[in-house]
Structures are given as C-alpha cells and as structure tokens.
C-alpha cells in the first residue's frame, strides 16, 4: 500500500462484503473471519450429494457439486449480489478461486479438461457488461490451470426472467436455447460446466442436454453455491 492508497483508505475504508466489518491490511473483499466461516458443503467429495441428485433421472453427469450453501441473509448472498448487480468482478474471481481450490484435490474432478461457463444471452451480457459465470470460471482457471471456453456453447434465444416460474415452466422456457458451434472441440473431453448459484438446475440441464446431443463427452457441474432445501 502506498501513501496515497493509505490516505484514500482513511476516508473510504474497504469493508468486508460478507459482514460489513472493516478490512485490515492483507485482506481484500472478504475478511479472514468470513473466509473461514463461509458455509462450505464439501459436496465435491461426495458423489451422490444433494446437488448431484437434482439431475438424477434428468441428464447423466459425471459429477456435480456446489462449494457453499446459499441462504438468505447468509454470508454468500451479498457476495453473489455484488457480483451480479454491482459490477464487482473481483468478488467473482475470488469465489471462482475458492471453488477451483475446493476441486483441485477432489478425485471426481481430476481429469477435467475444459471449463465452460453457462452462457448468458448476449443482450443480458451487454446490459451487465459481463457474464458472471465467466468471471467465476476465470477465477477457477487461475487455480486449476485449465482453459476456459466461452465461444463454443452459446445461447441463442432470450428467455424471460426465471424467478416466478415453476420448475416445469422453467424447463419449457430454457430447452433448445443453447447451441454447440464446434462439437469436435468437446469430443471425448471432460467438460466442467460452471454457474453462480444452482436452484432447480433447469438451465444447466438444458446446457448438458445440448452438449450430449452435439458430441460424445463427459460433463460435470460445479457452482459457487446451492440454495438450501
Ligand atoms: Zn467479514
């Protein structure tokens, strides 16, 4: 920290995005205490965890997990909110690194070759300025030392907002909206599909269906958080 940054810090101190307490030297975005207390699932070590079960009978996946429990007023919610609605890409990279670190040692994810973020519709990406899943994927790539592919699985049709729809309506809404532009890039590979939060899994299911229809490959799923049931 130089003198000017120190001075700016006096008037505009950085606060922890999860708990609001002042950050000290060496801490960025999230304080050490929140970093320690974030509600980890450890699902990456359990093959038949609740996130994997979401997809049972729907699409065949090699593995599926989420790093944290997402609870209203919990520590994760303000971080995701900051990433999606406050243009805070730094927190997305941080969360991606946390997620990537949790997967590095997990046996189920050892042969992953490519990281593919769930695509946002170009219009939405234009409004937000970026795809939050892509930012998370970039954070993961740093620690997992794997390439991120953003131009092969693409989204073609805009969907209405998902929040007020039932699971069935959501599925009708998202199927057939993804396309694989270059199937051979994914052929015989292990693709890790990445998103911010998993709720019903409909969007991810549509992505996996499209991938499996396009070519022969192995698909796994990893999200930063899962909604607690
Ligand atoms: Zn904190």
How would you describe this protein?
The protein has 229 residues and is of the alpha/beta class. The protein folds into 2 domains: 9-38, no CATH class; 39-227, Rossmann fold, CATH 3.40.50.2020. Helices cover 40% and strands 16% of the residues. It contains 10 helices and 6 strands; from the N terminus they run H-H-H-E-H-H-E-H-H-E-H-E-H-E-H-E. The chain has helices spanning 3-11, 32-37, 50-54, 76-85, 89-104, 122-128, 132-144, 167-174, 183-186, 202-214, and strands spanning 63-70, 114-117, 153-155, 178-180, 190-198, 218-227. Strands 1-6-5-2 form a 4-stranded parallel β-sheet. Helix 4 packs across helix 5 (89-104) and helix 5 (89-104) packs across helix 7. The longest helix has 16 residues, at 89-104. The structure holds zinc ion (ZN).
Keywords:
229 residues, four-stranded parallel beta sheet, alpha/beta, Rossmann fold, two-stranded antiparallel ribbon, globular
Short synopsis of the structure:
This protein is of the alpha/beta class and 229 residues long. The protein folds into two domains: 9-38, no CATH class; 39-227, Rossmann fold. It contains ten helices and six strands.
Bound molecules: zinc ion
SSE pattern:
HHHEHHEHHEHEHEHE
Strand order of the largest sheet: 1-6-5-2
Quaternary structure annotation: single chain
Strands, count: 6
Write down the CATH topology of the largest domain.
Answer: Rossmann fold
Low-confidence blocks of residues: none
- Binned, the helix content reads 25-40%
Distance between the termini: 43 Å
Q: Into how many domains do the coordinates divide?
A: 2
Structural class: alpha/beta
Shape: globular
Summed up, the helix count is 10
The chain-level mean pLDDT equals 90
| CATH architecture name of the largest domain | 3-Layer(aba) Sandwich
The biggest beta sheet is recorded as: 4 strands, parallel
């Amino acid at each position: 920290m130089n003198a000017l940054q120190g001075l700016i810090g006096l008037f505009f101190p950085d606060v922890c995005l999860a708990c609001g307490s002042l950050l000290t030297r060496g801490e960025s975005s999230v304080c050490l205490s929140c970093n320690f207390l974030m509600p980890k699932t450890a699902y990456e070590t359990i093959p038949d965890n609740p996130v994997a079960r979401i997809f049972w009978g729907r699409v065949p996946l090699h593995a599926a997990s989420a790093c944290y429990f997402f609870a209203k007023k919990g520590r994760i919610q303000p971080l995701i909110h900051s990433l999606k609605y406050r243009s805070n890409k730094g927190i997305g990279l941080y969360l991606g690194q946390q997620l990537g670190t949790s997967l590095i040692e997990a046996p189920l994810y050892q042969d992953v070759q490519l990281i593919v973020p769930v695509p946002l519709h170009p219009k939405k990406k234009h409004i937000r300025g970026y795809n939050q899943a892509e930012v998370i994927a970039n954070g993961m790539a740093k620690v997992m030392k794997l390439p991120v592919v953003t131009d092969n699985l693409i989204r073609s049709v805009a969907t209405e907002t998902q929040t007020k729809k039932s699971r069935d309506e959501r599925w009708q809404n998202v199927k057939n909206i993804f396309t694989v532009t270059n199937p051979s890039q994914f052929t015989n590979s292990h693709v890790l599909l990445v998103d911010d939060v998993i709720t019903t899994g409909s969007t991810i299911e549509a992505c996996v269906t499209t991938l499996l229809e396009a070519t022969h490959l192995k698909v796994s799923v990893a999200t930063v958080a899962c909604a607690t049931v």
